[in-house]
Amino acid sequence: NGTAGENPITAKTLSANNELKERVGKFQILCNDVNTEYIVIQRGTPGLNIVKPDITFEHAAAEVIVNVEGNTEFTVASTPEWMTLKEMSSTEGELLADGVTHSLYSATDIKFNIDANETGEDRNGSIILSAAGKTYNIDVKQRKYSDTDFNTPFYRNSLGIRFTATWCGFCPIMGEAYEMAMQQMPDRIIPFNLHPTSSEGGLGWKGANTFQDYYNVVGYPTGVINGIAQVQNGEVSVTAKAITDLAQEAIDSYPAKTNIAATSYTTGDGQITINVQVAMKEALNFKISAFVLEDGIVYEQNSGGDDYMHNYVVRTNLTELFGDPVPNIAEASTSEFKITGELPSNVISNDNAYLVLYITYPGEPIVKGVANAHYINCGTIVDNAIKLGLNDTHEFRYEKQ
């Protein structure tokens, strides 16, 4: 109206935010050649996100952690009689775009004590949470103590290492061969991609260089199956056949001496605990190795394009590089122990991260019957391997009779 004074500016939200996380918008005002940016934050609808609605625990008494995410306070309304709430701790939400406001969406670790399951049966129950007028259910199961069946052959997986690099123009070809082999033998080959420190895009890992020397790898790409045979690059179907033939040879000529069961837990600050059971048919010097891997990393690849999808990328080791000794080794026995560590900072997405565990024992290849495979003697054989999700369980598996 021509007089001096303040004039209000109103920002109006056009729709409700039905998500748990905040929505962030921005606008700019240009005044006297000064451009000022304003950040608008719309809070989410109060509620919880149950990260894992089904959780399995080991039979032994333990202190366990259940992770819940959300943007509001909540209470534990009830638990099975064999679970007791101990404490809850929350992490601060991420800093939003204005550089001042923290998101209300954060992770909470709920710590419980569970009693040993001595019932002889699996037992089931629910953790019920209450927040913002709603209830949320987490189904929990505690496994019974069970004797391992040592008379039935253990399920045999093969560890398929691929030495690869972003600068390697031939590496995508071997990548296709591995994918073909895994399709032809589903659930038998655990892929394990090692990038040397010369790989770009944060894919390189110094442990890969050590493995390269250990397995006498002189060129990229190179595949190493179960630590006893190298596969070189070639026509996709030929390389895939060499990989599947080696996996089948492992089943036939190197049957698993060990069986692996495991349950993993993570906390909001990235700590990892793995409860492991290793059943052993023989008393050998077994070692167990545990690694963090990640899928879905988009980064340029020579001969693969700018948006190449890198999967099965090894991020770090949770044990010694070549494994920790399995404790309490004895013939026809089961060893129970824990492996602990943390998610490394180079993991881009926790949702795409997971674990690979494998067992080795001293030995050298005796059967060498696969064409287009170069057998090597590095002193150890990979006996068995499993893929384990974060906050997940893997049971003992047996071959079908």
List the main descriptive attributes of the protein structure presented here.
single chain; 401 residues; mainly beta; five-stranded mixed sheet; five-stranded antiparallel sheet; 3 helices; 26 strands; 10% helix
Structure description:
By secondary structure, the chain is mostly beta strands. 10% of the residues lie in helices and 41% in strands. The chain has three helices and 26 strands. It has a five-stranded mixed beta sheet. Strands 17, 20, 21, 23 and 25 form a five-stranded antiparallel beta sheet that branches. β15 and β16 form a beta hairpin. α1 packs across α3. The longest helix has 18 residues. It starts with 22 loop residues before the first strand and ends in a 7-residue tail after the last strand. The model has no long low-confidence stretch (mean pLDDT 94).
